[in-house]
Amino acid sequence: MDYKRPSKDEYYMDLAKSVSKRGTCTKVEIGAVIIRDDQVVATGYVGSPRGTKSSMDHGFCLRKKLGIPSGHRYEMCRSVHAEQNAIINAARSGTSLRGGDMYIFGKMQGESEELLDAFPCFICKKMLINCGLNRVICSLKDGSFKTFNVEDWMNEWSQNDIIDDKDQYGVRTEGVKVS
Fold first, then answer.
1. Of 106, 126, 151, 154, which has the highest C-beta tally within 10 A?
2. Alpha-carbon distances of 64 from 33, 52, 67, 73, rounded to whole Å
3. Residue 137, class by beta-carbon neighbours within 10 Å (0-12 exposed, 13-18 middle, 19+ buried)?
4. What is the DSSP letter of 47?
């Protein structure tokens, strides 16, 4: 028998992939799963706030229609990010996230199997730091994943600036220097 049991990280990333399929964004499918003490405590996907119309309901992406480039002007997006929804869902149930891990899976919307480097945006990163998570595990374009220690983000941002962050949503960079 050649059965290969998935590692815990693979298992939880597969759950995040399943969660991503519930999203209502017309551009991307991103799912997040929060694990604490080896249990799923919250999930979230990219979607409009409860009880409101999504981009799918409207039939178009508002930011795209307005000519806003990807990664900019998030306040104009109808959706709440997967990471934010997972944190919100934990809060709605009164669940602490301190010491937990978040798994984030991302790919382009629809039939495309084009994977994304599913790094959190700056807004989500700040929330992930403040909610007390230990690790954030992100899927990558090549099908693997990258693990970030949240404490490392805190240390880097206390020594440098947020703009120097080398793993930004949408692109992998070595940071952008601001003079």
1. 106
2. 27, 19, 5, 11
3. buried
4. B
Instruction: Write out the two tokens for 118.
Output: 């599913």
Residue from 114, 119, 179 nearest 153 by CA: 119
Output the tens digit of pLDDT for each of the chain's 179 residues. Answer: 788 999 999 999 999 999 999 999 888 999 999 999 999 999 999 999 999 998 888 988 888 889 988 777 888 888 899 999 999 999 999 999 999 999 999 999 877 789 999 999 888 999 999 999 999 999 999 999 999 999 999 998 888 766 665 665 554 444 433 33
What's the full length of the chain, in residues?
179
When computed from its CA atoms, the radius of gyration of the chain, rounded to whole angstroms, is: 16
CA–CA dist 85, 6 (Å, integer): 26
